[in-house]
Specification:
elongated, Rossmann fold, alpha/beta
Length: 229
């Protein structure tokens, strides 16, 4: 090796040794973000992750629109608002409220609804699923995609979703499949969570997307009682 190559190698190794802790912290944060399907900003999430999920949102929008064509629907953890806007186009009689804990996501989602000319029917606001800023028994349906694994208190979240649903109302909560989660969060956690919630029982289904990849799960919950229109 030439003297210059030795110098470069020694400089790189010294820098790696000096900044070892910083490097480790950056790598740990990056791997936590990938694991949690999270990105440091609403814009990056919208452009890099949500934009490749359009086919998934189409499918979810079709299912929710068929269930509540003219109803009031709440989207929990609505992020940049791609699903809600799709849903509103699919079901012209539906009104949608999106709640997200991130102000940046809510701003982005409201801009998207305004650009689509849907602000009258589609509104987003800041809120935590564990303390929804909404009245009891208001919604025919609830939908949520890829948000549940972020909730700091999922049990409280399910209790709140139960509270704001009308009797007979249904929640459809889609999340990453167990094998994509941390093992400690996987297994039959959703079934246990549901059993301990005011819903008492629910269905956990595997969702195959993209293609036949079982990448998602759907938790279907129904509030007891007769649905009234
Ligand atoms: C991975 S993103 C999914 C966003 C969107 N549903 C989608 O499918 O693209 C998770 C979203 O859940 C929101 N979130 C996390 N914890 C929340 C909570 N406790 N209450 C409400 N929203 C929450 C985050 O701010 C983020 O927008």
């Amino acid at each position: 090796m030439s003297r210059r190559s030795w110098l470069v190698l020694i400089t790189v190794l010294s820098a790696a040794a000096l900044y070892r802790d910083r490097l480790r912290a950056v790598l740990e944060q990056a791997s936590a973000n990938v694991r949690d399907f999270d990105l440091p900003s609403a814009g990056a999430y919208d452009a890099l992750v949500a934009s490749v999920l359009e086919g998934f949102y189409d499918r979810v929008a079709g299912e929710v629109a068929a269930a509540h064509p003219g109803g009031k629907v709440l989207e929990v953890g609505s992020g940049p608002g791609r699903l809600a806007v799709r849903l509103a186009r699919e079901a012209p009689g539906m009104t949608l409220t999106g709640v997200d804990i991130s102000g940046a996501m809510v701003e982005r989602a409201n801009r998207r609804a305004a650009r689509a000319g849907l602000s009258e029917r589609v509104r987003f606001r800041v809120g935590d699923v564990a303390a929804l800023p909404l009245p009891d028994g208001e919604f025919d349906g609830v939908v949520s995609t890829l948000s549940l694994h972020h909730w700091s208190d999922p049990a409280r979240g399910l209790a709140e979703i139960h509270r704001i649903l009308k009797p007979g109302g249904e929640a459809r909560i889609y999340d990453l499949a167990h094998w994509l989660w941390l093992p400690a969060r996987g297994g039959d956690r959703l079934a246990r969570l549901t059993a301990a919630s005011p819903f008492g029982e629910g269905q956990v289904e595997v969702v195959r997307w993209p293609g036949s990849v079982p990448a998602f799960v759907l938790l279907r919950l129904r509030r007891a009682g007769e649905a009234r229109s």
